[in-house]
Structure formats: structure tokens, C-alpha cells
């Protein structure tokens, strides 16, 4: 009996180690819709540099928090911003100020290369601790060294950069919001191999692991 129990515990430990290893190389697959045009963008994470921010993004994605939100800021060839739950509304009142109701500790270190994915935050004047918004993020479309050392960069675009640059050139209103809505239809966290194979849905094991942790 003791031997069987030991073997079972050993197997569970090995499975847990495998799961953590596998999930550490997960990527995010975003499906963006602008009118009839659908774009697929893949992000990889900097688990080592921003573990808290990455874990939070994965948690929100698993709970479908981002589904239906819109790209609410677009600067041609420079930057896109999204992740505000207020952007699900048809009107733009308050957009840019929303979040999940909490902030995140700063994990500042990585550079703003082209394709950097970083957490948005309030300015230093009212946020001297530089805590990140709990859900809003931005993607740089070119290197932006002027932002280095100020924001938490937690990932980068590994596929779909050209599509994002195209979106950045859309006509915007006086708040830099695309006039024609660009909606994040879904964000799936999947193994890197699945994303490369074009599979948008996480497998059953990953869904279970996300619910548990």
C-alpha cells in the first residue's frame, strides 16, 4: 500500500512539474475583428521578467475578460492600446479609465522593442509607485526607448505585427479611438506548438490547469 501511494505521489509530482514547464511556454492568440476583416496575433510572454503581470494576463484571458473589448487608442506606426472593459460599450465615455478593479506591482526591466507588449498605468504624478493597470495593455509598433524604465513590459508580438501596424493607421476620432471599432473577439492561452499549428483553442488539460491555478 505504501509503495503504491509513493508511486502515485511521484507520478503527481512529475505531472505537476510537466504542467508548469508546459504552461511556462504558453503564448496568447488574439483574434481581432475590424468590420469583416479578422486578424490573428500571437504574443509570447516574459515569464522571468514579469511573472505577476503575465499570470494576471493569463487569468483574465482564461475568464474571457478581454472578449468584446476594443482597441481604444491607435497611433499610426507607433502604438495600439486595449484591454479596457469600458470599451465594450458602444459609446466612448470613460474609455481609457477602466480596469478589473485592482492594480499590479511594477515589474519594470524589459525594453520597448518593436512589438513590445506592456501594461498601461496612470502617470507618475498620481501614481508614483508606477503600479500597472490590472488589464489595460499597449503594443509598440516600433522601438520606443523613451518609455524604457517606466512601464512593465511583459511580452512581445511574435506573429501579426504587420496586421497591428495596419490597424494603427485606421481613421480615429479626437480621442485617438478608431472610428470603426476593432474588437478583440477572443484571447486564448495555448502551447506555443498549438499556436504555430493554427489551433486557436486550449486543450482540455490547459483549461483544467488554468481553472485550478
Q: Which features does this protein show?
A:
26% helix; Cyclophilin; 5 helices; alpha+beta; 213 residues
Folded structure, characterized:
The structure is a single chain. Residues 5-22 and 202-206 have low confidence and may be disordered. The chain has 5 helices and 10 strands, in the order H-E-E-H-E-E-E-E-E-E-E-H-E-H-H. It has 213 residues and is of the alpha+beta class. The protein has one domain (2-212): Cyclophilin-like (Cyclophilin), CATH 2.40.100. The chain is globular. Strands 1, 2, 3, 4, 5, 6, 7, 8, 9 and 10 form a 10-stranded antiparallel beta sheet that branches. The chain has helices at residues 2-23, 51-62, 161-168, 192-196, 204-212; strands at residues 26-34, 37-45, 69-70, 73-75, 79-82, 103-104, 116-121, 132-140, 153-159, 182-191.
End-to-end CA span? 30 Å
Average pLDDT figure: 86
Number of strands: 10
CATH homologous superfamily title:
Cyclophilin-like
Count of structural domains: 1
Q: What is the string of helix and strand elements?
A: HEEHEEEEEEEHEHH
Helix tally equals: 5
CATH architecture: Beta Barrel
Model regions low in confidence, pLDDT < 50 over at least 5 residues: 5-22, 202-206
Shape: globular
Percentage of helical residues? Answer: 25-40%
The computed structural class is: alpha+beta
Q: Given this structure, which CATH class is correct?
A: Mainly Beta
- In this structure, how is the largest beta sheet organized? 10 strands, antiparallel
Amino acid at each position: 500500500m505504501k509503495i503504491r501511494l509513493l508511486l502515485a505521489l511521484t507520478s503527481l509530482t512529475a505531472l505537476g512539474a510537466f504542467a508548469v514547464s508546459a504552461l511556462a511556454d504558453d503564448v496568447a492568440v488574439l483574434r481581432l475583428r475590424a468590420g469583416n476583416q479578422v486578424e490573428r496575433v500571437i504574443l509570447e510572454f516574459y515569464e522571468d521578467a514579469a511573472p505577476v503581470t503575465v499570470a494576471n494576463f493569463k487569468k483574465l484571458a482564461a475568464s474571457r475578460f478581454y472578449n468584446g473589448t476594443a482597441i481604444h487608442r491607435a497611433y499610426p506606426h507607433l502604438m495600439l492600446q486595449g484591454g479596457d472593459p469600458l470599451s465594450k460599450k458602444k459609446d466612448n465615455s470613460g474609455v481609457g479609465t477602466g480596469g478589473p478593479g485592482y492594480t499590479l506591482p511594477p515589474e519594470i526591466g524589459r525594453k520597448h522593442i518593436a512589438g513590445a507588449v506592456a501594461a498601461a498605468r496612470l502617470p507618475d504624478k498620481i501614481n508614483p509607485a508606477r503600479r500597472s493597470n490590472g488589464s489595460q495593455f499597449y503594443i509598440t509598433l516600433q522601438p520606443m526607448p523613451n518609455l524604457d524604465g517606466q512601464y512593465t513590459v511583459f511580452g512581445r508580438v511574435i506573429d501579426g505585427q504587420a496586421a497591428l501596424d495596419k490597424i494603427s493607421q485606421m481613421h480615429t476620432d479626437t480621442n485617438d479611438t478608431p472610428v470603426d471599432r476593432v474588437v478583440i473577439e477572443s484571447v486564448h492561452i495555448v502551447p506555443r506548438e498549438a499556436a504555430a499549428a493554427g489551433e486557436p483553442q486550449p486543450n482540455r488539460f490547459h483549461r483544467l490547469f488554468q481553472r485550478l491555478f
